[in-house]
Amino acid sequence: MALLTVAGCSGGQGTGPSTGSSDASKTVGAHMAGPAAEVHISQAAIAARPKPWVLTTPESAVRSYLDWTSYAYRIGQSSFATATMSSYEEVRVDSYVQYNIEQKRLMDQTLKSITFGTPSVGSTSTLVPAKEQWTYRYVSTETGNKTVGGPYSASYDTTYTVVKSKNGNWVVDSVKASPQGTVK
Questions:
Q1: Would you tell me how many other CB atoms lie within 10 Å of the CB of residue 74?
Q2: For residue 34, what pLDDT is reported?
Q3: pLDDT (tens digit, 9 = 90+) per residue, 149-162?
Q4: pLDDT recorded at residue 95
Q5: Non-local CB neighbours of 134 within 8 Å, separated by 6+ positions
Q6: Would you state the torsion angle of the CA atoms of residues 2, 22, 106, 84, taken in this order, to the nearest 10 degrees?
Q7: 10 CB-near residues (< 8 Å, 6+ apart)
């Protein structure tokens, strides 16, 4: 088992697992600083990195965002997904990672299917509608990562606002998700 001491969700640059710092004053970057917490993550979870992101089209950016955000939720480190999103969306994702760590859990989610609708291209952004089906569970941050909730299923009607970053890549700027049923 890998042990990460997490101060908020800081410490990573998206290149590999971080050992972080238990001193919240050493938070890296603009990530939120929450209370220091011990987070145990299996080597298998760390090794299950998604394929490299592809940010060449709005749709490929959404797929990469979903892959890398799911990975970030599972390992409790939002910094691994930041290349796929704007700083605006990064705050929301980081907040959710921090919330789960405070609840002494991590989210392990899997996208089962996604169907994209017709994008709406604007002058500064593109809206990408989608229908998604997920399975997910919550795992303990303690050694062994015991399941503490789930497995559950969820379906969403989503709209991704995707923008071009300064380097020309498409990134997710915001997500509007409407659950189709109960989400736990």
A1: 23
A2: 67
A3: 999 999 999 999 99
A4: 95
A5: 109, 110, 111, 112, 153, 154, 155, 156
A6: -90
A7: 18, 20, 21, 26, 27, 28, 29, 31, 33, 79
Rounded distance between C-alpha atoms, residue 17 and residue 19, angstroms: 7
pTM above 0.90, yes or no: no
Rounded to 5°, the CA angle 159-97-156 comes to: 25
Q: What are the DSSP calls for the chain, one per residue?
A: -EEEEEETT-S--SSS-----S-GGG--TT-----EEEEEE-HHHHH-PPPPP--SSHHHHHHHHHHHHHHHHHHT-GGGGGGGB-HHHHHHHHHHHHHHHHTTEEEEEEEEEEEE---EE-SS-EEEEEEEEEEEEEEESSTT--EEEEEEEEEEEEEEEEEE-TTS-EEEEEEEEEESS---
Cα 71 from Cα 148, distance rounded (Å) = 18
pLDDT at 6: 47
Beta bridge partners of 41: 2
73 closest CA partner among 107, 40, 39, 30: 107
Backbone φ and ψ for 175, nearest 5 degrees, come out as: -135, 130
